[in-house]
Amino acid sequence: MAKNTICVWYDKDAEAAARFYAETFPDSAVGAVIRAPGDYPDGKQGDVLVVEFTVAGIPCIGLNGGPVFKHNEAFSFQIATDDQQETDRYWNAIVGNGGQESECGWCKDKWGVSWQITPRILSEALAAGGGQAKRAFDAMMTMRKIDVAVIEAARRG
C-alpha cells in the first residue's frame, strides 16, 4: 500500500466502481479485494469491505461503508485530456454508464463520484491570464462538456 492513498467511500459498490475506472482510464488497475472478517453495521462477514485500486496513476482504496455518507463536489478526480477525442471518450464513458452531466467540464459517475474532464488547452488558457484567460473562462462557463475548438477560438480572441 502506498504511503498516501485516497480513500473513497461507497455504499456497497466499491469493486464495481474500481473495475469501471480500470477499464476507462489508462494507468489504472484493481488490486486487492479485501473481504470483511466479521459482520459490521452495513454488511456481513465475507462482503467486499475494501478494494485497492489505481486511477490514472493515483493510488486509492474504495471502502464499502454503507449509505451514511454521500459524495459531493467537494472532492473530485480531475483528468487532463489532450484533445476533443480524449475528452469525449472519458465524458461519454462516465455519463453513458449511468452518470450525469454537470457544468464546466464536471460530471458524476453512477456512484456519485465527481469528475472534472479538463482539456489541457483550457488549463493553459486560464494560467496565461489576461484577456485570453477571461475569454476562455467565459466560454467554459456556458458549457457542460468542454468543447476544445471553442476554447481554442476564445484563446485567439
TrEMBL record:
Query: Which branch of life, at top level?
Result: Bacteria
For this protein, the record's Pfam families field holds:
3-dmu-9_3-mt (PF06983)
Entry's CDD domains? Answer: PhnB_like (cd06588)
What Gene3D superfamilies does its record include? 2,3-Dihydroxybiphenyl 1,2-Dioxygenase, domain 1
Residues in domain PhnB-like?
3-118
User: Can you name this protein?
Assistant: PhnB-like domain-containing protein
Natural source organism: Rhizobium leguminosarum
